[in-house]
Amino acid sequence: MGLGSSAIPFAFYNNLSHDHNIQPNSNMKKCIKPKALSPGDTIGLITPSSSITDEKLAKAISNMKMLGLKVKLGKHIKAINGYLAGTDEQRLEDLHNMFADDEVDGIWCIRGGYGVGRILPKINYKLIKKNPKVLIGYSDITALLLAVHQKTGLICFHGPIASSDFTDYTVRHLKGALMNPQMSYTIDYAEDNNAFTESSYRTKIIRPGKAKGELTGGNLTLLAAMMGTDFQPTFKNKLVFIEDIGERPYRLDRMFTQILQSSDLHKAAGIILGVFVDCEAKKGSRSLSLMEMFEDRLGHLEMPIIYGLSLGHIKNHMTLPVGIEAEMDTEKRTITPDP
Description:
The chain is of the alpha/beta class. The chain has two domains: 10-178, Rossmann fold (3-Layer(aba) Sandwich); 187-337, Glucose Oxidase, domain 1. Helices cover 27% and strands 19% of the residues. It contains ten helices and 16 strands. Helix 10 (290-298) links the parallel strand 12 and strand 13. Helix 8 runs parallel beside helix 9 and helix 9 packs parallel to helix 10.
């Protein structure tokens, strides 16, 4: 089994002494590093987006125990409000309670779906800044990670949701990024992805090269939805990672076009595209292919761009800390933190 090594050492975070201009009109903020997790630590499980099934909850608890972590459930963990995991107030309460609880060492979102964007303006960012902890998830959780980092400087983690299938590759990345502060790794391509027959799992260099910058990004749909809000991210001089699932090329085109026209993505240092599962055009349709769309929308940008690194709605999932400085190398298919 080909496993890419995958940790971003917390020791590296100690070097993040410079300020980051997270957002236009925001104050300069220093990055805040959360404490590394250790076996026996307690993870607070929350559902800030869509609701979960009993099976998803059991899977999340099992995953935490496999990592040697204890579990504390949010008060409203099983709440249901249509397509949401309870009311906005219930989801906010669970988020705030986990950050305020001294017994909780880290906060893990059980699933994505929809709903985080609704609560962003009501989050108590001062509470979070005062009680920095590991915060991890992806998909709809993109909005939470970016907003929290933007408003507080807290380094958050774009990684698997708690109920994901944790492959060896995924676990290696999680332990390296969250639990092994003295270990230094390069994040590279998951060779196991070659076992999938879908072309979307193949890497492709759209523009070659190396680039350095602060890591930011997440789900394309959420990035597009954040444009024009108080939480719109900036991309200038950053390494921007982007992923999505189940969107046809014309819909991806529309979102990339929106972001290109309303943000500074064209000033990024580099772009890292994940595996866009179930995003290819239907056979016989009048459509650009997935890769033709990427070439059309991004190929003119003067920066390194690579498609197919192991992030997104896939089993082999790298963990990327939002807010750290790193280097991308399209030829080696790697992401490496600065020493």
